[in-house]
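User: Hey, quick favor. My workstation is busy. Could you predict this chain's structure for me?
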Amino acid sequence: MLTHLRRMAVGLFCSAALVIASCPVFAQSITTPSQFFGFEPGADGMLFGYEKMIDYLKLLEKQCSRVKLFNIGTSALGRPIYMVCISDEENLKNLDELKEINRKLALEPNLSQSELNELKGRGKVFFLGTLSMHSTEVAPAQAAPVVAYKLATSRGTDTLAWLKNVVYMMVPCHNPDGMNMVNENYMKNKGSKFEGTNLPGVYHKYVGHNINRDFITLTQPENKAVSNLTSIEWFPQVMVEKHQMGSTGARYFVPPNHDPIAQNIDENLWSWIGLFGANMLNDMTAMGQKGISQRYIFDNYWPGSTETCLWKNVIAFLTEGASVKTASPIYIEKNELKVWGKGLSEYKKGANFIAPWEGGWWRLSDLVQYELSSTFSIIRTASLNREKILQHRNDMCRREVAKGLNQAPFYFIFSQHQTDRSELGRLVSLLREHGVEIKRLSADLLVDNRKFRKGDIVVPLAQPFRAFVKEVLERQEYPERRYVPGGEIIKPYDVTSWSLPLSMGLNCSEVNARSIELENALEPINEFKVLGNAPGNSKHMVFCSSNNESFRVAFAVLAKGGRVFRTGEASEVDGQIFREGSFVISTSLAQQIGSLNLQVAPFCTNTMDESKLKEIKLPAIGLVETYFHDMDAGWTRYIFDKYSIPYRVIRPVDLAGLNLTKEFKIIVFPSQNADLLTTGKRKRDDDYYPMNLPPEFAQGMGKKGKSNLLKFIDEGGKVISWGQSTELFMGTLEIELDKDRKEEFTLPIQNVAKGLQRNGLEIIEAHVNVSVKPGPFTWGMPSSIPILMGDDVVFETSVPYFDTDRRVVLEFPTGDPRLSGYVKKGELLENRAAVVWVQKNKGQLILMAFSPQFRGSTPVSYKLLFNALIAE
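Assistant: No problem, here it is.
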């Protein structure tokens, strides 16, 4: 142990390149991390929680003039989120002035050369680091106090120069709630055979690992807080998000990334990312740190992670360290070291892996060491290139605005008359959160042979964040790259389509001809709202079913005990046309909806034909969620809470013992592996493998639970299931009627995806078009919609027998349905089904081939879920 610590100390603090020399006289009044926590951060088996970490950083702020804390937001469970600025004392005194310099460099393309020179002379590089958003990846946050202490107390001339040129903006934990969840779980199991096992459930109120899949739609408060730093208030020039990866591959990843890369990103940003990565590799290797990889696994194509600020001209990248068992060390034999995926096919010395690690003990303290050296390397690079980076930031602003003035597309225009006008309001709010400039037409105009109306929403491309605007508003064409000509394509790390107009169900016009007349007719817009008529003495408020927020109103009123009615057919009321399924609520309940901040006001009337209205009730809903980091279930809970839909979480093992018919009307199965739901184990080939959880959490519904579930359906219950969980209802099914009798049956539906894959179908989470059949499950929806789906579930129906029936709700059209993203041989989907209603005796199932609420980002298909909950 002593040898290990000495080696770590020599590697960290005696390198000529990255010396961090702390003067005992200077630092004697400043509390060290080990003094405060009672152990050295990174020590085997030791972790501190979020509040304790923040207490130390606040103490450091009191004791040292180089540290300043800012509260930047609140987590999903109500914890304050902090950003810590560490820099030269004079820089911290002048933060408001320096922030204004950042803003001008980022957003003002018309600075004169003298103005630019003056700003570069006074400005500093602001470097943002976000740590441990994935809460099982504990090392970055555990290293944070050490990084802060070393920078705060260093007297080394190199470090003092860095801090004069750089303001390090550290978010010491991106996910405070998850940090505490994981730490508490680890300490509870420490010393037992379950030490280092997974946390049961997701390490966040809702989304767990998917917190890093939310930076386009910004649904979670933690991500809003961090996005605000880069888009609205601080405008840093450099950003890193720090992560961990698997235990048996490379020890560390630094940029550049592997292909594919985003096609909308300027080449100068890629070259800067390469420079920071090369310097990290150089600095860390010089310190004797082995196993550092580049151009491996992690591409930079999809813009949904914290690095979304790359599309806003920030030099943004990530690092990834090899994990231990939370905080417990692991010993890795040489034969266990393997690499996989893009960039490395062998665990051997090569261009992307210049100094392989040879195996042995791997500790949290090793990870802390790598985090320190990589962070200091980034700060050093930022300092050495201060003026160039500041110049680059304004150059990017100028370049993107110039592209918007000279290259198509020039504008994205949204008609104010959308099928779902509430989602247009949400889009306007979202783009403003992203720092995007949005305008409104002040007059009717003809542009590019198309007529646009006064009040239409215009997003011009001639703005500093042009790359982001173009990326999220256009449709995606996947950049097919291959290792060899004619070979297999290089697959992406995540989804291949994220078009906001498609995801939100909005019609968007891409205008490829510049119009000075249009630009002269633009006026500012702060928000989009559809005003209603004057309520007067009206008796009814009518909310059109085509708007998602109408469902939110209905559910909110029902949750508070109010009465809600629906129309059974399209109708005209006082000259207004309302779609079938629209909601009618008494104006006496107006106060109940006053806090909902509606985008579309209700239509008030006295002339509604009450005889054609049907009252709806909120059914008792059970939501099945496993303990296996069930993110899709977490997203479902998020949507249910956001829309005021009451529910009760059911664990699969509970299905065997509950009286389901008595306790629930509806049971919802979000997408989850059917084997995990049934057995609590994952199936690979013909074997079942136990999960890394204590046994009380690794249980499925079993044969009894599944029979009980099917009996619930048979007796009149409703099941809503999508994605992988629909496999529960395929093939031969069995209900135990009593001790000696059982009923075997099949439902008139099959998943034919594997056969289609063998014939060449390939979809990597792309937008495809589907036709919408009219009926109560699709009330408020247009005749076709885009859905976001993969290729693992596609339905065919069959002629029913006995007490079963079926109807297709969504089906794939003739020809290739691809709208955006990577789809091959999409024509194989022709006439097959994406959503099917199935009857079994008195009960029913609504089975969907895709997640209708995918990561809280596909409002276009929310109504499928909402209607399924309240349709009879």
